[in-house]
């Protein structure tokens, strides 16, 4: 069930009490209000290129600033939203915010491709490519600037349907990343059939690398697998300099994690980028303007 798995222990929703119609109704209306009353926020976490130290990619992660429950993590309301179908409204809000933000950054000369997380339920919706395509047009953002992240299990729920949608998204120019790679059950033959651009190694393996040889073996093998298939590879959950250096040695392409930056609201991310650029002499502007 959803709530206990998350770290705050907030009992937001418990699947075992699925019959509690009143609680569900209340949560439903709270979620609706969240979208209508601007209680949702998008934070952005950078992905750092381990070879050049440039930052050209960020991941959008939704947050719910609830008036009485406080900060509610997406792990606590996305699964509920998926079950109730309200995910559609949230996803539309997320996609529009992310694309609008991408356009705003571009207008300031900041080139950042933005990735959004897409859940299983949306993936099998045939309207997803049309929705994205309309939003990209509305804000004048090239499709190549938009990435979507999907988990293996989201694909394996209904592989044929999922692959159809992914093919259509890819035909538009939208890039695809497999999130939490290695944790779901997936078949490598599906990986071969899908228009994937990037694998994201799940943070459990990356965080375990320091202590467990098996985790490092999994990380190393995933990097090799990705490269042998012509894919980029990202390590998520990079929490130390040690892990970052090791990943660079293993030729991992990109790193994401608290050691580099937590997910941040847009203005804070811009501050972080400025500082990053000062220290590293490189930037998301693609050229070295520090000298
Ligand atoms: P994810 O896409 O795998 O995102 C990575 C999660 O790991 C994020 O949690 C991020 O804050 C956290 N993280 C990043 N770096 C580190 C690190 O160094 N150490 C640790 N311990 N954690 C790190 P968050 O933001 O709570 O999101 C949780 C999950 O909720 C996401 O996992 C994603 O599956 C889902 N999610 C988030 N936003 C959306 C959304 O807009 N739509 C959908 N459908 N799902 C979303
Ligand atoms: Mg993700
Ligand atoms: Mg992940
Ligand atoms: Mg995850």
TrEMBL record:
<feature type="domain" description="EAL">
    <location>
        <begin position="24"/>
        <end position="277"/>
    </location>
</feature>
<protein>
    <submittedName>
        <fullName>EAL domain-containing protein</fullName>
    </submittedName>
</protein>
């Amino acid at each position: 069930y959803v709530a206990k798995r998350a770290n705050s222990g907030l009992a937001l929703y418990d699947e075992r009490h699925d019959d509690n119609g009143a609680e569900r109704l209340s949560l439903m209306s709270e979620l609706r209000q969240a979208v209508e009353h601007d209680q949702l926020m998008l934070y952005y976490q950078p992905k750092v290129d381990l070879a050049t130290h440039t930052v050209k990619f960020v991941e959008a992660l939704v947050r719910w600033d609830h008036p009485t429950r406080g900060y509610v993590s997406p792990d606590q309301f996305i699964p509920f939203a998926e079950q109730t179908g309200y995910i559609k409204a949230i996803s539309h809000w997320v996609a529009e915010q992310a694309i609008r933000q991408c356009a705003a950054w571009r207008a300031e000369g900041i080139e950042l491709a933005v990735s959004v997380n897409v859940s299983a339920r949306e993936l099998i919706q045939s309207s997803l490519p049309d929705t994205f395509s309309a939003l990209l047009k509305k804000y004048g953002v090239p499709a190549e600037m938009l990435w979507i992240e999907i988990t293996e299990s989201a694909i394996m729920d209904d592989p044929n349907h999922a692959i159809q949608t992914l093919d259509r998204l890819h035909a538009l120019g939208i890039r695809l990343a497999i999130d939490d790679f290695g944790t779901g059950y997936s078949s490598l033959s599906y990986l071969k059939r899908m228009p994937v651009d990037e694998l994201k190694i799940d943070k459990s393996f990356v965080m375990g690398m320091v202590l467990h040889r098996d985790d490092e073996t999994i990380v190393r093998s995933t990097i090799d697998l990705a490269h042998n298939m012509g894919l980029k590879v990202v390590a998520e959950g990079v929490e130390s300099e040690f892990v970052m250096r090791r990943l660079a040695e293993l030729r991992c392409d990109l790193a994401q994690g608290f050691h580099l930056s937590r997910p941040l609201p847009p203005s804070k991310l811009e501050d972080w980028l400025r500082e990053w650029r000062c220290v590293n002499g490189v930037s998301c502007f693609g050229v070295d303007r520090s000298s």
